[in-house]
């Protein structure tokens, strides 16, 4: 290896990365700001900034002129967050949500689409996802060539290599060939991750857990699933199973992975079958015993004793799940997310009191405020992490094309 030939290129790349990392964290910076932040000389800083501008990753910002200032104001530089975009997808059982984000994490467009009734075939579901992706790009006014990475969140176990783990009941609903479809059809790199793990990334980035390095997020709508952040890093485990809740059938008082919404629905229906004639019946009507989770929470808020008993039963059951997560992962914060997050606030007092029976110094409990954007936000964060680690090897406006210096010379 010719060290003397590679050293100048390596030094140049190191300087580019140092300045770019600073620009990504501040609104704008002068040459003096960058000198202080990087320790580089003025000549090097200016040369690097001009290089970044030529590559498309930076731009010159307007320099406000102070009152009475004479001469030309100092040049200011800023990161070009519109040099490329990423897509975050939340692929659920019934719907797909697509979010388009610039490189600063600002959402610039998106859409949501429902899958065909009863889920449809894999081909039907794949077509729905692709159509939703095109619609999201159109909504954002972003060309496909400007997308630098795509991340998918799915309600299935994903290996550390980003493939869907075999042997799962729901795997056929998510094994849609999207990685190949997006790579071959659009030239996009695709990352696949479990939805609960992406929820944890989202809460650490933009949610209640923004200042917490040790937290867990439980998606608790239809089925329970957990994502864990430990010392600031997402936990996967050897096979990607960290945080899965497949052993709950062994836990007394739990018995399966049913989530809050499913339990409220089933136990509310059982109450009507048993002859309940209170607020739940008034909300549902006389012609059906099928209860939605929303009606159970609304009835409890209105003072219905049967509904309140159902919520207390759910809170006590959930506390046992929280105790397991607390014991195994020792988080400081556990966030409840998913389709029932807005209603789950009513469960917090009961879960908190019950959890204290099982765990000394229990973690703080909270409900996610990210709503339906929770998993898609985590997908955006995953895609941004992928791009940020490779910025100098990409060309703005064409996500898969490496920059000239990244292409080996003949």
TrEMBL record:
It comes from the Bacteria. Pfam families: ROK. Belongs to the ROK (NagC/XylR) family. This is ROK family protein. It comes from Arthrobacter koreensis. The lineage of its organism: Bacteria, Bacillati, Actinomycetota, Actinomycetes, Micrococcales.
